[in-house]
């Protein structure tokens, strides 16, 4: 639990450095933020390793909070790497704070959902694709929120100090569509691998996940096709991306939250 708290503190410290720097003329102290988040990520992967791997022959604990923590780590790492090239500074505090909170919750609310990947090694392919697809599309949802905020700020007459830190609208929009494309491809592969490697994707315990994932996949596909053929952009794309992210979140964590948190409580 001590390591969880320390990890949380370093994630929040990195977020604080970035947020306070946004309101200063010189901007955030990037070195301090990077050092803080790297320490947090190092502690985080150690926590994940001990929390998910249960020893030889005992399986893997893929509980809801462990999966959420793993996704948070993947998103944080991706956003940190992307920050050296892409305009995402305004999103980093949100990502780091959320990831730190998940780490803290996983320590406070222990739960177990043990699976045996060694029994079905093909299951690892499906799980990996699903995790990367969700992480990519979750980042796309964050960019959609950022795009909405930039649109809102551009329509205001009085710009705040934060306004100067906002990235160009077109740059964010281009990144959003690239993320949607990559995420949708990964989600497609995840669904295909699920139908190939799982016994019954429409079984009682899997049906909600399959249906919601298919709805999200259909929504993302329509948005991408509409952008390619008709040049769709703006609010319809933003809201569709956010709704798709909500559908995937419900698909991946909805029933698990009820089983592992509410019913156990």
Give keywords:
single chain; 265 residues; mainly alpha; two-stranded antiparallel ribbon; 8 helices; 2 strands; 74% helix; 2% strand
What is the element layout, followed by pairings?
Layout: H1 2-22, H2 30-52, E1 60-61, H3 64-82, H4 92-108, E2 114-115, H5 122-155, H6 169-197, H7 207-230, H8 235-262
Antiparallel strand pairs: 1-2
The number of helical runs is 8
Q: Name the shape in a single word.
A: flat
Q: What percent strand? A: under 5%
The rounded distance between the terminal residues' Cα atoms is 20 Å
Compute the number of strand runs.
2
Structural class: mainly alpha
Mean pLDDT: 87
Which residues sit in consecutive blocks of at least 5 with pLDDT less than 50? none
Helix content: over 70%
The biggest sheet amounts to: 2 strands, antiparallel
Strand order within the widest beta sheet: 1-2
Q: How much is the radius of gyration in Å?
A: 19 Å
Order of helices and strands: HHEHHEHHHH
């Amino acid at each position: 639990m001590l390591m969880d708290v320390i990890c949380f503190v370093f994630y929040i410290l990195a977020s604080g450095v970035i947020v306070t720097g946004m309101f200063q003329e010189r901007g955030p102290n990037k070195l301090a933020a990077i050092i803080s988040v790297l320490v947090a990520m190092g502690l985080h992967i150690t926590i994940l390793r001990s929390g998910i791997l249960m020893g030889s022959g005992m399986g893997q604990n893929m509980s809801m909070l462990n999966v959420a923590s793993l996704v948070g780590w993947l998103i944080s790492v991706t956003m940190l790497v992307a920050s050296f090239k892409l305009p995402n500074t305004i999103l980093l505090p949100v990502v780091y704070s959320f990831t730190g909170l998940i780490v803290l919750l996983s320590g406070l609310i222990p739960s177990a959902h043990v699976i045996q990947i060694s029994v079905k090694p093909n299951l690892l392919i499906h799980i990996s694709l699903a995790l990367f697809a969700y992480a990519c599309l979750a980042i796309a949802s964050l960019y959609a929120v950022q795009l909405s905020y930039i649109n809102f700020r551009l329509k205001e007459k009085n710009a705040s100090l934060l306004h100067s830190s906002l990235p160009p609208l077109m740059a964010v929009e281009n990144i959003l569509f690239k993320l949607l494309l990559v995420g949708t491809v990964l989600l497609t592969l995840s669904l295909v691998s699920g139908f190939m490697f799982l016994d019954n994707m429409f079984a009682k315990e899997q049906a909600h996940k399959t249906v919601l994932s298919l709805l999200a996949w259909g929504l993302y596909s329509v948005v991408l096709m509409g952008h390619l053929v008709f040049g769709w952009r703006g609010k319809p794309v933003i809201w569709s991306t956010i709704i798709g992210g909500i559908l995937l979140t419900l698909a991946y964590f909805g029933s698990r939250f009820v089983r592992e948190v509410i019913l156990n409580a």
